[in-house]
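Technical appendix A lists one of the benchmark inputs used to test multi-chain prediction within the project. The record comprises two sequence entries:
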Amino acid sequence: MTLDEAIYNQLPALQVIVPLIAVPLVAMMRARHLAWLACTLTSLLSFGIAVVITTELLAGATWQYAMGAWPAPMGIELRIDSFSALLLLIVTGASTLMLLAARVPIAAQIQSIRQPLFYAVWLLTLGGLIGILVSGDAFNIFVFMEISSLATYVLVAAGRDRRALAAVFTYIVMGTIGATFYLVGVGLIYMMTGTLNLADMGVRLEQVADSRPVMAAAAFITVGLALKAALFPLHIWLPNAYTRAPHIVTAFLAACSTKVAIYVLLRFDFLIFQESIPNHALHFAGLLLPLALAAMIVGSWVAMFEDNLKRLLAYSSIAQVGYILLGAGLISTTGLSAAVLHMFNHALIKGVLFLAVACLGVRLVQLRLSELGGVARHMPWTMSAFAAAGLSLIGVPGTAGFVSKWQLIVAALEVGPWGLVPIIAIVTSSLMAVVYIWRIVETTWFAHASTAVASVREAPSWMLVLVWLGVAANVYFGLQPQLPLTLATGAAELLLESCCD
Amino acid sequence: MTDAIQIGLALGLPLLGAVGIGLARRNPNLRETVTLATAFALALAVWSLVPAVQAGLRPELVIAELLPGVQLAFRVEPLGMLFAGLASLLWIFNSIYSIGYMRGNHEAHQTRFYACFAIALSATMGIAFAGNLLTLFLCYEALTLSTYLLVAHKGDPNAVKAARVYLGILLCTSIGFFLPALIWTWQLTGTLDFVPGGLYGEDIPSLTLGLLFVLFVFGTGKAALMPVHRWLPAAMVAPTPVSALLHAVAVVKSGVFVIIKLVVYVFGADNLPAIGTELVIYVAAFTTIAASIVALQQTNLKRLLAYSTVGQLAFIVLAVCALAPLAAPGAALHLVSHAFGKITLFFAAGAIYTASKKTELSQLAGIGYRMPLTMAAFSIGALSMIGMPPTAGFISKWYVLSGALQADNLVVPVTIMASGLLNAAYFLPILYSAWIRRPDEQDQHGEAPWPILIAITATALMTLAFFVYNRPAHGLEVQLFGS
């Protein structure tokens, strides 16, 4: 066996281990620039591994890895399919992009002495999120979920803004409730089946199908994860956490944290409970569809009137979670692929939007819309990028957002006459997005400039390069959606494999 | 292969021009040279496609695959050729005019203005050459967005508010109605290509088709059928070159162009759904008359012209929907003749504003003495709107009327007569006041700067020339509709 092959076979393990190993190394560094460099390179390496894994997956390889060569269901199994591969790309890609841009905004928002620790915690979050995605068993998912959540709390509270502490407290309470619910559900399943391996669980649950503990487990797990995913009305932790976190942390979280929770949610509900609970699809849709529709309307509605720029985008994220779960709730290949695709596209969109906000944050302390009048005349490149990503959020053709809305509406049309309800909701919510994005564009370009704004300069050019790279990605995946579309369709087929009908 | 390059040039040249304009921002003379050079090059690229299309070829350019089976593709057919040829030709004169207007009025942000203008032209070419509905929709939205900054050009609260109405109506209609109809079509048929004779199969219920038709027509906000016409008068806050080329030719004609495309290539001229078409016909007839009546009450010259445009657009939609395939060539010709006439009228309005800062009808007494050339051109444009010989408007109305009489259709001839009379009722008083009434002794302004005069003379002459020489345009249309 050559060295190449040896490394190649270890890729799933390396994917999760590389960032985790780097954590203590980065934490021990004293020089903040060195810590940043190490953190960024690690993240970049993770992204590289994710790209190789995805490429191989598309070429037909399957990724199953037994930790320590102990075979599943006894040993720990890592498993990567097209669903997890797409999410790996999102998580590692977003982390890398944000870290590349992080130096200046982090220097502005976090004390220098704390920065090495901050970067270490960032890698811990990244490792946790990756761990959730590659794990093939329910308990490891819980462990990694806790690792990433605890690390996220630290990230959110890392800045100088003391108001972040209150936000983090809510986040901790809600996050812990969510994780506990999940753990209770997993415990119930373990009681009934004696296994924690996801694949094994699916098979064994059939023998105890339609039993009350399994029902209870499904309820606990679905609600717990919906809480982590910030599905309306379980979203209350999200707006404050996003608003108070350091800007670059917000950009990272907005791109990937809720999506990973949705990933676990869909895995459980489609691969495990689908066969073991009669009419599960119906229950799932009956619960999620109304909430998803409500999220789309309520989230966008609040965003239309919100003054704080970051909170506005946070509410928009709540609406976007609605889009994703709407697609999933339609229980069809098109619907699920639309949902998974929108996870990817929304990460691209929100990542760029929050990165543009971080650019603003480098120059301005207050990010209230009422005090941002005319800022675009001083920072035209930043705000043009914001507007371009906003167009993608609205779903203007030629952007990534358009492709996911297209898929969603096609999926809704397949339902028949009832599909009209989601279509009206999608269209209404998109039009509301026009309103809140255009409010920002209009204020920043045309409103009278306040004194605070009058002296600002354009953001650092390196950050602008990265923001515009993100905008270019939005356009690229709007015109060439084959890669995410293929992975999303693969994911949808995988999720529906065990579906009865 | 060379055809593909020409299409690529038609789409790419204006974009390159926009970059060039941005680079030359420090040197206004160089910047305007770039604009003019781009306009000439674009016209050359577009017009060099004409022989191939006349010979029955359909040059194609495929750029990317957007969705499985739907490409970002461009395909030149007669109607698009006509539209692109018209817009690219008029851009040359509009650029000359812009130089006189923007400098004469000391407008700010001129680089942004010229750059956005070039991008808008690229989007217009994309609409004209779009090979399927999705590409068309993409370019349609690009045109909306690129013209937003032109409407909001002044940047004062008034302009921003008007631009908000502009963007709001155009985006809401296109995302709210056009996009769902588009996706529904894809779901029903699995294709979005333009197919002569229509792409819906026999098995689709006529009620569905009717609903789709209504969604498409009202989703095309740029065609300005009532009640989605409000953006057009609002857009008049833009500098006059924008009103002239974009809001009398490129943007509004894109709307009408989309509807003609829908009728010919998506629904099929022979099998328009009865229910939806009927509704559209009555709305269009109502819009034609109502817009003319509203125009009668206007006191501001540009707003009057805007409502006149609303009426004329609805008239084209009416003719296409009611009389396809008989009078459709006439309707498509009206797209051209109205463009020549209306751009002349707007040029004149802008010339008056540049020379004298007058914008209201009541200020125009005796202006013909001060600005004889401008008002002569204005008169030609007004006569063309009314439909009197020897102007372009007469020709297209002639073809539409003859089609209507063949089809035994009464709605169209009655609407033509009524709108012609109403047009006369609001244009003739202006002519009377300009030529017969005595000028105010106090104002001593003369004609507008010479670039404006060149442009205005050229388009006025074209309005006259089209009366005599319209064979190529008509030839293209006959080829399209095969009658």
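The interface with chain B takes residues 391, 394-398, 403, 405-406, 409-410, 413-414, 423, 427, 430-431, 434, 438, 442, 445-446, 479-482, 485 of chain A (CB under 8 Å). Chain A has a mean pLDDT of 88. Comparable benchmark entries are summarised in Table A2.
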